[in-house]
Amino acid sequence: MAKEFWINLPAKDLGKTRAFFKAINFRENSQFSENPTMASFFVGDKNVVVNFFPEALFKSFSGNEIADTAKGTETLFSIDAQSPNEVDELANKAVAAGAVLYAQPGEKDGWMYGCGFSDPDGHRWNVLFMDFSKMPQQ
Q1: Exposed, middle or buried, 90 (CB in 10 Å: 0-12/13-18/19+)?
Q2: pTM
Q3: In what side-by-side order are the strands of the sheet with 76-80?
Q4: Other C-beta atoms within 10 Å of 4: how many?
């Protein structure tokens, strides 16, 4: 069984990417904070690692073309929120830092409240508060 799991993503401008994720309060991995070839952050209580690499470097080890995020979604990263207010706060921080909202904050299906944004590289993130006490039972 794997001991760790991390996510690697391409970045067009590593400085801009680093600044964006600091602005939305992702915790920078201090081991790589001065590294010119990657930016690394911890996400959530379980410290999931998200690494960003310049596109050319990313392409060299992915063995494939980089997805054009303007034409399609490569993946959707979901962030747990503790309240609707936390969803709104993160949406506001993301927009202020340069994100584009593709889904305004709002309620969905009577038990979820969330929003969606694209980071400066076009990677899609959604933020969800889920009230499981209101989740429909089948």
Answers
A1: buried
A2: 0.91
A3: 76-80, 124-130, 112-118, 100-108
A4: 7
Structure token digits, residue 91: 């949406």
Within 10 angstroms of residue 117's Cβ, the number of other Cβ atoms is 22
- Residue ranges of the alpha helices (H) in the chain? 14-23, 55-62, 84-96
- Residues forming a β-bridge with 54: 11
The CA–CA distances, whole Å, from 103 to 52, 87, 107 equal 24, 12, 11
Q: Give the span between the Cα atoms of 98 and 50, in whole angstroms.
A: 19
Per-10-residue mean pLDDT of the chain, 138 residues long, equals 88 96 96 91 93 96 92 94 97 98 96 97 96 87
